[in-house]
Fold these 2 entries.
Entry 1:
Amino acid sequence: MDDSQLLDFFKALADASRLKIIGLLAQESFTVEQLAAMLKLRPSTVSHHLARLSKAGLVSARAEGYYNLYRLETSKLETIARRMLSREALPAIAADVDLEAYDRKVLTDFSNPDGSLKTIPAQRKKLTVILCHIAKSFEPEVRYPEKEVNQILARFHQDTATLRRELVGAGLLERQRGEYWKVQGSGNRV
Amino acid sequence: MDDSQLLDFFKALADASRLKIIGLLAQESFTVEQLAAMLKLRPSTVSHHLARLSKAGLVSARAEGYYNLYRLETSKLETIARRMLSREALPAIAADVDLEAYDRKVLTDFSNPDGSLKTIPAQRKKLTVILCHIAKSFEPEVRYPEKEVNQILARFHQDTATLRRELVGAGLLERQRGEYWKVQGSGNRV
DNA sequence: TAATTAATTAGATGAATATCGAATTAATTT
DNA sequence: AAATTAATTCGATATTCATCTAATTAATTA
């Protein structure tokens, strides 16, 4: 569900002392003093670690006299573990990432202000991005004679023959008897 | 199994950028450049993150041309998740921790060099530690008359009556008809 | 072969944080 | 009420590390 809560969880466990605390509390509840003696740390340090673990929902405290008895919240551990195993939860972490950023970068890197291409990319990966972009200039369901195709491609680069060949090779344009048309559903991603 | 490998795992995921990388690779393989563009980071930074993830066994690279295509190692994720869910794996994290350190600390805090007690602890938790220690001075299977019990207890503290009463109250010593004997299996932990 | 390009490595810098000692708070014992 | 005690909080310090730029390596294209 939550984005930063997962990060807090991993940050909480990304420390040798805190990991040991989790291991100890998995066996039995302990007070701050006991943990400090076993880990050979100052109580203030252990208190700090427990606060972090508590903020991540991994431990909870129960006051007993003037002791504070800490216990492990196994449910939290289980929740996260199950999330790591689920197929959908992982991609959700990157939900707010801009997936098209790379394509845009390639496009601006190779385009002049007027929209024409500086050069035709040599790398397959970049060429594909450019070709997908060019394909958007073709209407679906329309059949273009070669002369019109060249007119459109000339807006991008003088070497229309190469562009035409690559568009067909990439499966973005189809050709038959001197006529061309856009392949359905080839508007966007690779 | 391994101790520091688990720590490496959590450290690897304890960063917002790396967590996003995992989320992205969960959908599809990407090159360093693509990830850099999507995350708005320099390729060198992404490379550094991928190295960390790789060291933790979370991703692997496949050379393709002069691209490096990174993919997620879901098996590693599954292994750790299952370990988090298992009852035995968690306590194993603290296998090398000195569990008796607290008891030893209490013992030295309250003992004089000759082994006698400075005072009898007021806190239940500490009193129990001391009582367990004293109980070790009694042989199993042996019945002690009260006079002998007092002789042994006097080595620890003059207030033998209190010690005797507490030992019985804690269930470490049993009494019947003026004779005392050690309760089986009460030698050590609380 | 020379120029370009993806990726990694090295070095530098600033931010986060693990740990400690001291001060404070709250509960217990005398 | 005064003294003791467990725990937390605060301030300081040293370390770890995320990120950047620059340099280097390795592969591809011209």
Entry 2:
Amino acid sequence: MLKKANSDLVRRQNRGLFLETLRQHGPLARITLGHKTGLSPASITSISAQLIDEGLVYSVGEDEAAAAQLRRGRPLTRLALNPRATNVLAVSISVDSIELVFADFSGATHAPVKLRMDTYDIPKEEFGPRVAHEIKANARKLGIELISISRIGIAVQGVADTITGEISWSPAFRARDIPVVKPLERILGIPCSIGNNANMIAEALIAADRKKYSGNTAVVFLGHGVGLGLILNGVVYGGANGRAGEFGHMNHLPDGPLCRCGRHGCLEAFSADYGIVRMANSGQTHDFDVHAAVRDEDMRGLEQAAEAGDAIAINAFNRAGEVLGFGIARLIALINPQQVVLAGPGTRAYGLMKDSIWEALRRGLVHDLRKYVEFEVVPYGKDMITTGTLVETLRHLDRDVFATGQKSAIVEFAGRKIA
Amino acid sequence: MLKKANSDLVRRQNRGLFLETLRQHGPLARITLGHKTGLSPASITSISAQLIDEGLVYSVGEDEAAAAQLRRGRPLTRLALNPRATNVLAVSISVDSIELVFADFSGATHAPVKLRMDTYDIPKEEFGPRVAHEIKANARKLGIELISISRIGIAVQGVADTITGEISWSPAFRARDIPVVKPLERILGIPCSIGNNANMIAEALIAADRKKYSGNTAVVFLGHGVGLGLILNGVVYGGANGRAGEFGHMNHLPDGPLCRCGRHGCLEAFSADYGIVRMANSGQTHDFDVHAAVRDEDMRGLEQAAEAGDAIAINAFNRAGEVLGFGIARLIALINPQQVVLAGPGTRAYGLMKDSIWEALRRGLVHDLRKYVEFEVVPYGKDMITTGTLVETLRHLDRDVFATGQKSAIVEFAGRKIA
DNA sequence: TGATTTATTTTAGCGTCCAAAAAAATGTTG
DNA sequence: CAACATTTTTTTGGACGCTAAAATAAATCA
């Protein structure tokens, strides 16, 4: 159903568009903003005057390069997002550590702060307060006032319930349903949201190449687990309560090998690192501890063995690829994406799995569907998760907080204005 | 990325909202329209004056029931969609027949016209012209001028490419990539669109109970094949080119039994009618002709046998349910819908499959995901497909054609105006 | 008949956009 | 160096659509 439209909507949408355009392209002259947004010069003047008055945007000098090459006419003055307008924070939770990345409104980040934390055995009600404490301490260390932080985005591997703000299940915790958003909001007084790693990587991809990834794209994350971020109609899709994309726990083979989730035959039990290691050590299938984290050097060793021709190792990667291929085939049959992107540290072994992935796609997917899908492997950067989290958080500010142009939003979230 | 907003957008959106509200609730007084849409009485007066002038809406008398119970004050005058504003047509294509349902702008339908047509062996370039011919002939028979038809919606079982407007693959045709939209548009001069049956059923469900189905719902269609309509964020999701929801050809078991699509182990090969029949006649697995249509009476016979305790028949339905259950488990893991709805003639045998469906869900899906999903079986009406097609077609008119309020749209599509 | 009630229309004004004109700020040229 | 050319930005004047409030319409009530 459509929603009522009025001038309020127009203002919000165009201010949001203005901010998003600046965020995407960096400092731009008013005239360029007009071209990119489709708004008239008059409107750009009007909107920018407001945003400057509110301290969200400010004038920076003419572009050096542009100024160098002599051109006639009035020189352009570029506008930029004001870094001092506000701050945000991305929190990435993984096994035994959390990472904090503070950024200003322009998206410039401070150096990541990595903190050891014994997540696995922490009592569930202590986790939120511990994180809140670390946030306070580290913000102080960096000279960032708490009140200047408008929003905190949190990323976690596993199942995050976006509605309740709890971590339903994650390999980083023994406990379930760990409250995160509520305690942080209560203690810090800052709006928070939570999502899973794969969705954040999808956000990072969209930000990196909007054109390419903004249709329907499935981002498969290979690592300690197997995750999935779905971009549907250009937007990251979360499902009814953020639980979409549990690709790793999509069943592959009824009654197959044990998975970390306690069920049998999940895709992850074949294709995540521990599934591959187990397959390679097939003698000890039964007493294999699925919960033990696979060390990076062990995984690299196995990859090297496979590359050196070790039949058992090769077979383990083949099997992982085959199951992954069938999973992707099922995914494509359901979602019909334009693109499937493989990401995560597990893609290091893509060369070892490639053939079996494609063989499985051939066996498991009608040609009509297969022929339309582009397949891609992206190099994995550790910072993709926090980058994506920041992108998502800042977009929320652009669209839903600062775009409204209501004084309350500015005062409440921005904390200060620039003269 | 956001899009530019201006008063044009406001007009379109509010006119669309006005029309959709009338379509959903039937004749309404201006004051009620105001409450339902959130628009002010002044705006309602203004918009309705325009729509009346354009012949899209007209005044009907006061509601009898409301008039009967004496009330003070100026009596309300109700507005309704003008049936004579334009006409639309739904075309449903199935094996060996096509069905035409003409409707006016208010959604009132003529009696369905069912036409035998040997679809399976028709040369692919003849199909479009044949359908066009039937449309012309039957419109004339019903006294409907061709020029009064604004839009034609087409539904087909199988894979319809919404971009090219071709039937990529369907059990109703031996050929592939049968052009439909283009020839119809060329011959009739009327805008057309095509989609698959399951999506149309999803549309019909949304129309029947907007509140219930407008979040994230998966509609599984059981019949000669197994289809899927996905409602994501309240909108039917088509995928990159309308091929989403190929649930029936989602692989269940690598190298399993032969499917109509030519691959092995698709879900449909177990759970569609022919899969069940084959399983029951397991002696002749190898020379079973998957392309032969299963007759309704045979299917009913098998159901009765199972209900009477025939072990072989019971086993066939159990197996169908098990595979369906695993498929639904995979679907839920990927999509995280609020609801899963079973529809189609195959649901007659739901009682025979229920236990095995649920057992498979238990085995194939983590509890965290299972516990949030509501499960529902809806009685199947043969008209759901054409109803859904009409709903979709009329909504397109409401939102994208008549909402613009441009004279060209009115003249071009409506054909005539009412005094 | 006049008061009351309810629905609808009219009026006056507001916010946003935009085309066109004006202004600003620089380079070019005779 | 003054007039002209060019380009960016601002200002002006108006359009469009929404809305609150006032006015009007059309009924019932007493």
